[in-house]
Amino acid sequence: GFIVVTQVGSQTFGIVVDGVFHTEEIVVKPMSTKLRHIDMFSGNTILGDGAVIMIIDPNGIAKALGAAGSSAHDMGDDNGAHHIGSGEQTTSLLVFRAGSNQPKAVPLGLVTRLEELPADKIEFSNGRYMVQYREQLMPLVSMDGVTIASQGAQPILVFADDGRSMGLVVDEIIDIVEERLNIEVGGSASGILGSAVIKGQATEVIDVGHFLPMAFADWFTRKEMKPSMHSQSVLLVDDSAFFRNMLAPVLKAAGYRVRTAPTAQEGLAALRAQNFDVVLTDIEMPDMNGFEFAETIRSDSNLGAMPIIGLSALVSPAAIERGRQAGFHDYVAKFDRPGLIAALKEQTAGAAGASELSRAAA
């Protein structure tokens, strides 16, 4: 068997499983209201073969461990409410070294898999390094100063989307940490968003979007529907420039017209000055959090029917229920790109159909 090491708050425990098969990108949907009382699960999904699977909630397992676990679970909810009020949030970050001794980091939610590939499996073809990976050729991209190993094992960060994979070659994978991501100094080099203090050290936060097109030039554009006057428009409200800069290109590549706002107040001003098809809002924002923002929209007679999707790093049954009460139509984890696009398609389907009918009538 295997042990899956899990951390909830300050509590670390192991989940004993019979086997580990592989990792897979999935769209996690919230639990049905009839099942949300089952703390052990946080959602469900449908696999390619049609099988419905439940997503385990580590908080629920911690609660089931007994008083200590229950306290940790309750503390998690309380801390979530505190973070929402204070505008703070933590992000799971993968810390590694590449090209120098200075640590680098990337949000763990963007990484599909971590691999250590045998150096003798790395091939050179068509002027670039690549590896046969999961029955496909995966291009390898190196950061500045990184030399691909000629022997032993080569650490790789795998990023995958829509059947394609890219391997980012690094020197060493150091750790996975939970930190408040605050980029204090902007990046001056290509591929670096800036520097943040992570575990007491100045750490470069990399821009994954810079490296993906090095593997496939059309990574962001191959599925792109050129925005037109008929494209659905999205208002993205998030106080973090990091998340605005990360999500806006993803939404544009999916064919949406995107406008961003750094505060809920500016988001309200934009809604009252321009027509949008859907609102994406962060939860943990200062002054007015995402729940309050949604409630304000719902109380406005001109905006009350606006679809609202919540974005947060704190996706739990309690948060989903709080979002439902505030008026959210859906609730998605910030790094769940497939889930976000699926939620957008679902919420804008009615508007798209009405637009098509209007154009046909014209």
Structure, described:
The structure is a single chain. This protein has 3 domains: 2-86, SH3 type barrels; 91-215, OB fold (Dihydrolipoamide Acetyltransferase, E2P) (Beta Barrel), CATH 2.40.50; 233-361, Rossmann fold (3-Layer(aba) Sandwich). It contains 8 helices and 22 strands. The protein has helices at 58-64, 67-86, 208-215, 241-253, 264-273, 290-299, 317-326, 337-361, and strands spanning 2-8, 11-17, 29-30, 41-46, 52-56, 91-97, 103-107, 113-118, 122-125, 128-133, 136-142, 153-161, 164-169, 172-179, 185-186, 192-198, 201-206, 233-237, 257-261, 278-282, 308-312, 330-333. It has a 6-stranded mixed β-sheet, with no helix packed on it. The chain has a 6-stranded mixed β-sheet with strand order 8-12-13-11-10-9. A hairpin with a 2-residue loop joins strand 12 (153-161) and strand 13. The protein is globular. The N and C termini lie far apart (64 Å).
In short:
The chain has 362 residues and is an alpha/beta fold. Helix content is 28%, strand content 34%.
